[in-house]
Specification:
The complex is a heterotrimer.
Chain A (H helix, E strand, L loop, with lengths): L3 H21 L3 H26 L3 H31 L13
Chain B lengths: L2 H20 L3 H21 L3 H26 L11 H19 L25 H8 L4 H22 L5
Chain C lengths: L9 H19 L6 H20 L5 E3 L4 E3 L1 H27 L5 H20 L3 H19 L6 H32 L4 H9 L3 H21 L8 H8 L2 H26 L4 H24 L4 H22 L2 H28 L15 H4 L1 H15 L5 H15 L3 H27 L13 H19 L2 H12 L3
Antiparallel strand pairs in C: 1-2
Helix pairs in contact in C: 1-2, 1-4, 2-3, 2-4, 3-4, 3-10, 3-13, 3-18, 3-19, 4-5, 4-10, 5-6, 5-10, 6-8, 6-9, 8-10, 9-10, 9-12, 10-12, 10-13, 11-12, 11-17, 12-13, 12-16, 12-17, 13-15, 13-16, 13-18, 13-19, 15-17, 15-18, 16-17, 16-18
Classes of the chains: A mainly alpha, B mainly alpha, C mainly alpha.
């Protein structure tokens, strides 16, 4: 059997890829997708821990994470559209205040 | 699940995750994200999380990702133009991330000794990961968070309408 | 078994109910006038405050131990009621000033955010906390962007959303690691497990703690996770900025303190030195950046960053005195900071936000009452004796000294001296410079007058008679056990 730690290692890797993507990309929608990668990394960790502990809690928590992700996507994309109506750009550098 | 299936599957997940952040065109990023989500669903099946795996495809790959694609199409996004002045930041962030990953991964590349739980090798009850088992836990111990999500979704709906509808009031 | 105990959830339920009432009333009102909705919100929150105060001393738990209504939750519940009522009072005036069309939604979403805060204060479980936080955060993202005709509002919402969601990722992964380490998400059970953890379990616990620290760092805008704050505070509608700087930040600290000073208290050796470094950076960079600002909202944003640093000093102390000082300072901070933003709203008028420091020239001479209020808030924020900010800093720094962090208290005092320069600069402009433009002030603006009266009176009162509030804070912190 593959030890649970291997799954955690994979989820850490996914999380780091997501975080790097958020930092290096300037396209708002790709930055947003990087955040989704981070959330999915957490989901993988929850499911792996749940299997290791043979407890359902981790899997139930994934439900909540999916709900939160859906809510965030709805609001995030609405903000994106509102911004696009003003600026016609999704490059973070062209949005004046989004430089950091 | 043996290492023989785990390693190729993880490699694919990492490759497509890298595809999400490295592709210059948002559409390609979104498609890579779709594959990553699908492969994670496969991983969930191997971890006996059957209902979660199904939901991962229906909700995540199905609903959330389609919304992403819809917005990309709606806004008619083009590929990013690479910018030279950002290259240093990119290199620095990547290097820092790799160092961090190296440090963070070290404790996990070993056995499960010391991790609380029954372990991965024991027998799994038939009900584990089924809709019934999840529902049982969801509507007893987690009943409050479940109710809170209804408020959360209402706020999201209200907010999305306020922010995105064409004319207000 | 399902353990349903509605009384424990009373503050959250009342706030949610008020939000629904506002939504329904919004449908019933046909004209453009929306002030009545603000009043529904204020009355609902007053009822919430009464119900919450009634629960003082009961220390009830419910829903299988995932929610508690201990004195700590009651204290923060009352604090959130205060912050939200003040925000609503400012908003009734501000919405008219900027002719915001989505007034009904604005009030409802503010109340939903308040409901999320109450849930955060009561949460005794990482998942309940996470959902409360998300309810509050998503509502706050929407509020930041609700003034659609203003480009800066949309930009602020975008930035707030992206950085907030990024922070959520860290918090969630931290929760995942803690769940893996202790097989539970209930704070009480984690607190029991942390003390005896070893090996891989301890690695997971420390990793989870570090990720939570990053997540909370973003949420309370501590350096180096503060980069979003000035832009978002500047771009968001001023009434919303007041809400974010007071209520949302206090809610972040409510859970930050509960998790770190109670649940993870056994790991305080590991986190207190990190927090000490963060506190120094946050205070210093916040204050030094505030010196260079020409926009009052940006200046107050950096000032709010530096105040997060002072609060971290109290957390570093990691004992009962430090915890009580943090709770007390949050009360003082909500009063004086909301008051300062109310002045910013009062100086703006329709079509003229007047957010530059240059616009403040001579305002104090033309509008003595407004100038007097601003004097109270600025002196209090700077930590001058006889005002709430001074007593708050006194408690914070003396807690640090008693815990052996005298150097940290010295850094804090030095920072307060630096901050006098820019807070004093505003007052110099208001009273010494020649007026360049006429502002409306508080004439014929009853809601702003009420807000200013309450916040200024509270700031002065806490400065002169601090002990009763400090004792409440000490009792509240002691109820964590």
């Amino acid at each position: 059997m593959v030890p649970a730690t291997y799954y955690i290692a994979l989820s850490v890797l996914l999380f780091v890829i997501g975080a790097i993507g958020f930092l290096i990309r300037r396209n708002l929608i790709v930055m947003f997708m990087s955040i989704e990668l981070m959330l999915n990394a957490a989901n993988l960790a929850f499911v792996a821990f749940a299997r290791h502990q043979l407890s359902m809690d981790g899997q139930v928590i994934v439900f909540f994470v999916m709900t939160v992700a859906a809510a965030e996507v709805a609001v995030g994309l609405a903000i994106l559209i509102a911004l696009f109506r003003h600026r016609e750009t999704l490059n973070a550098d062209e949005v004046r205040m989004l430089r950091w | 699940m043996t290492l023989l299936t785990f390693l190729p599957l993880s490699a694919l997940i990492v490759i497509f995750a890298l595809g999400v952040i490295l592709n210059r065109h948002p559409i390609r990023s979104a498609l890579c994200l779709a594959v990553t989500l699908f492969l994670l669903a496969v991983m969930f099946v191997f971890l006996d999380a059957h209902l979660v795996a199904a939901l991962q495809i229906i909700v995540y790959a199905g609903a959330i990702l389609v919304l992403f694609l819809f917005v990309i199409m709606l806004l008619n996004l083009e590929a990013d133009i690479p910018q030279r002045r950002r290259r240093n930041l990119t290199i620095a962030a990547t290097a820092a991330g790799l160092v961090f990953a190296g440090v963070a991964l070290r404790p996990f590349l070993g056995s499960d000794a010391g991790l609380p739980g029954v372990g991965m090798s024991g027998p799994v009850p038939d009900t584990f990961g089924t809709a019934a088992a999840i529902g049982q836990r969801l509507f007893t111990h987690f009943v409050l968070p479940f109710e809170v999500t209804s408020v959360l979704l209402l706020v999201a709906v209200l907010g999305a309408v306020v922010l995105a509808k064409k004319k207000i009031g | 078994m399902i353990d349903v105990s509605w009384t424990v959830l009373l503050p959250t339920l009342l706030a949610t109910g008020t939000a629904f009432a506002v939504l329904l009333a919004d449908l019933a009102i046909t004209g453009p006038e929306r002030d009545g909705l603000g009043w529904i919100g204020i009355v609902g929150l007053l009822a919430t405050a009464v119900a919450t105060a009634n629960a003082w001393g009961t220390n009830a738990t419910g829903f299988a131990g995932t929610v508690v209504l201990d004195d700590y939750a009651v204290y923060f519940g009352l604090l959130f009621c205060l912050a939200t009522i003040l925000t609503l009072l400012i908003s009734i005036d501000y919405i008219g000033t900027i002719s915001l069309k989505a007034g009904g939604e604005y009030y409802a979403i503010t109340l939903f955010a308040a409901a999320g805060m109450f849930l955060m204060a009561s949460s005794n479980d990482l998942i309940v906390f996470f959902l409360g936080l998300e309810t509050m955060s998503i509502a706050a993202y929407v509020l930041a962007g609700i003034w659609r005709p203003d480009l800066r509002s949309s930009e602020a919402a975008m930035k707030y959303f992206l950085l907030g969601a990024f922070a959520t990722g860290f918090l969630l992964f931290g929760i995942a690691l803690l769940y893996g380490a202790f097989e539970t998400t209930t704070l009480g059970d984690i607190a029991v497990g942390v003390g005896s953890s070893a090996g891989l379990q301890r690695t997971l616990a420390l990793g989870g703690m570090a990720l939570l620290l990053v997540g909370f760092g973003f949420k309370v805008a501590a350096v180096p996770f503060h980069a979003w704050a000035p832009d978002v505070y500047e771009g968001a509608p001023t009434a919303v900025t007041a809400f974010m700087a007071a209520g949302v930040k206090a809610a972040g600290f409510a859970v930050f303190v509960r998790i770190f000073m109670h649940t993870l208290a056994a790991l305080s050796v590991d986190w207190s030195s990190v927090l000490a470094v963060l506190a120094v950076l946050t205070m210093t960079i916040g204050n030094l950046s505030a010196l260079r600002q020409s926009n009052i909202k940006r200046m107050l944003a950096y000032s709010s960053v530096s105040h997060a640093g002072y609060l971290l000093v109290g957390m570093v102390a990691a004992d009962a005195a430090g915890g009580a000082a943090v709770l007390y300072y949050l009360l003082a901070y909500v009063l004086m900071n909301t008051g300062a933003f109310a002045v910013v709203v009062a100086i703006g008028k329709r079509g003229e936000p007047n957010e530059l420091l240059d616009d403040y020239d001579g305002v104090g001479l033309e509008h003595p009452a407004l100038g007097l209020c601003m004097t109270v808030f600025m002196l209090s924020l700077a930590g001058i004796p006889a005002f709430a900010g001074f007593t708050g800093k006194f408690y914070l720094f003396s807690a640090a000294v008693q815990s052996g962090y005298a150097w940290l208290a010295v850094v804090g005092v030095l920072n307060s001296v630096v901050s006098m320069y820019y807070y004093g600069g505003v007052l110099m402009r208001m009273f010494m410079a020649d007026p360049t433009k006429s502002v409306q002030g508080t004439a014929h603006r009853p809601y702003l007058t009420a807000t200013l009266a309450v916040t200024a009176a509270g700031t002065v009162m806490l400065g002169i008679l601090p002990s009763w509030a400090y004792e409440l804070a000490a009792d509240a912190f002691a109820s964590l056990g």
